[in-house]
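Dear colleague,

Following up on yesterday's call, I've attached the two folding results inline so they're easy to grep. Please treat them as preliminary; we haven't cross-checked anything against experimental data yet. The first protein's sequence and structure tokens come first.
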Amino acid sequence: MPILETEDSTITSLKGIHLYHAGMSNCSMRVRLALEEKGLTWISHEVDLGHQENLEPWYLAIHPKGLVPALVHDGVPVTESNDILHYLEETFPNPALLSSNPALATEANEWVDLAASLHMKAIKTWVYGSTGGASKKRSDMMHYAEIQPDKSLVAFHTHSLDGFSAEEIETARKMLADVFDRMEARLKDNDYLTGDAQSLADIAWLPQYVLLNMLGFDFRPYPGILAWAKRQEQRPSYQRAVADWMPKVPNWVVRTGAKLMRFYRKLKPLRP
């Protein structure tokens, strides 16, 4: 578990639970959901990704990769959303988000790991490819490459600037469809992804649904997932962890904006 050892007094002096996060980040959503499901009091520090606040020295001292979210608990930073979920479950075991049944706990963890494994190669590829978006500017890439220790992230964001091919976007869509087929098979007769209660599995995949649905991924073939999402949206944690941080406009407005951005980028490729 990536718990960062630091002597930085601005970090070690923090008391309680501090979450550094971004509103529409799906990784941030899952950690906010876990905090709210556990009824924990936490202090919000919203990181402005648009102005690359995540790459400023003060934030890199908390998370050297410059990713969101990062959690600091009583002065100890914990990074990577999956590891934060497990840290919260181990540190604050009640209410439990993993079953006491070992088989169900293993199954839930497999769903969590699957979300992490598809984060770049399927979820972000489809999102960036479908919107024509890129989270970095060419003029910023040299600096990003210098400070980013994970060179796979550098390669991904460099490639995103050139745009993903139709084949790459379709491959990503198929990977996601395979997962949603599995989810549908489970959810058509069950309320939760594992067992008979909310778990880390639901928390890991609800943000993926929220983001992809907002940007126009076709969920019409998955009535079980749509019904599950409706139930999830009724939970008090959803309002505080997801809805309160989303754009205050209908999804169709976001989708229209994404289409216009894609059209604009085709007409005028990104310049240095």
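Below is the second protein, in the same order (sequence, then structure):
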Amino acid sequence: MIKTYRSIFISDVHLGTRDCKAEKLNNFLKNNTCDTLYLVGDIIDAWKIQQNKWRWKQSHSNVVRRILGHAKRGTKVIYVAGNHDEFLRPMIPYGLSFGAIKICNQTEHIDANGKRLLVTHGDLFDGISKLAPWLTFLGDKLYDMVLNWNSTFNAFRRKFGLGYWSLSRYLKYKVKRASDFLLGFEKNISEYCKKKGYDGVICGHIHHAEIKEIDGILYMNDGDWVESCTALVETHEGIWKIIHWTKEKDENEVTTHEKQQEWLKNVRKTEY
């Protein structure tokens, strides 16, 4: 059954990378619709494209088609640029858009309760990204390394019937400097909202979904589609929720990967 929301927020999809959970996102977008869809940055990973390390699968194209399909059917789609898709930012002043999809650096969302919410990717409130870009690049490399370890580790867990376990999420909570970074990021963005008269903020960037109040400011982060597979949704009654999506396919549906495996099987059958 398809669920309909007043608004949906997703970010940090990183299309073009190996670890992007495009199949799950495609299934989420298939089963959930909304009046307004916000793409809150890092939807495409241009850094990997620039490094010639990108991996664009059919499932990634399916996500793009699904988003365009929502726009065609009347959903208002707003794309907020992030640091991994910052190549869009210089063109924003010239009214850049992809068909019906509006592209901006940040925007404002008025929720069903009349609250003014800043919508921004969040990298501009990350002191490391702003003041020392080379450290951000180094951090990205280390994050890739952790994801590689994570993939190998979880392959062993699957063999023993164990569920997915995130090493990077564990490190974020357990390593003091990482915890201090998260708290500093949340504090910076909340203080900015208070100064500008916003009631709250919706962001991404740090790959950590959360809804909480910080010094009177409603702080909401929609997470990511690399590990957590989370989206922030607003119901028509004005209730905010974080959805953790685990499905790659509906019952009786065949995924892109399964189609490819079936095709390879058929090709091998015809080989002599």
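For the second protein, one point worth flagging: The domain at 3-270 is CATH 3.60.21.10 (Purple Acid Phosphatase; chain A, domain 2).

Best wishes,
A.L.
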